Amino acid sequence: METELMSVHIKDKIIIGLVSLATLAVFYFQYIMVGSYPLNLYAWFSLLVSVAIFLRFSHVGYQFIGYVKASRAEVMRVVWPDRRDIVVTTIAVGVAVAIISGVITLLDGVLVRVLSLITG
């Protein structure tokens, strides 16, 4: 059990090192060695491949893929509002914003006049 857990951690570290090297290659060919389009394209491709390998073969990637699948299933269970509910809610929010804006504008005007009377 312990050796299996240890091999998982070593495997994850190797894959993370691969992703890190690919990221450094992308950075180097994108920002330092500007103008090397084929190498830049190869670096981006190697980054995508290494991320795919990380997601497929590492424990963290496996957990992430499980999280994405669970999130997708949760979104599929959401009861989305229909068009009428959205329109009614949007109008209610617009009216509330207009009323609050009017109240704040009136209070601002009153406070400006009161302060001008006080300060002269």
Describe the structure in your own words:
It contains four helices and no strands. The radius of gyration is 29 Å and the shape is elongated. It folds into two domains: 1-78; 80-120. The N and C termini lie far apart (83 Å). It has helices spanning 2-32, 37-57, 59-77, 83-119. Keywords: Cell membrane, Membrane, Protein transport, Translocation, Transmembrane, Transmembrane helix, Transport.
Descriptive terms for the model:
120 residues, mainly alpha, 4 helices, 90% helix, transmembrane helix, protein transport
SSE succession: HHHH
Q: What's the pLDDT, averaged over the residues?
A: 84
> How many helices?
4
> What is the straight-line distance between the termini?
83 Å
Residue share in β-strands: under 5%
Protein name: Protein translocase subunit SecE
InterPro entries: SecE_bac, SecE_sf, Translocase_SecE/Sec61-g
Keywords: Cell membrane, Membrane, Protein transport, Translocation, Transmembrane, Transmembrane helix, Transport
Organism: Candidatus Comchoanobacter bicostacola
Gist of the model:
Helices cover 90% and strands 0% of the residues.
How are the elements arranged and paired?
Elements: H1 2-32, H2 37-57, H3 59-77, H4 83-119
Helix pairs in contact: 1-2, 2-3
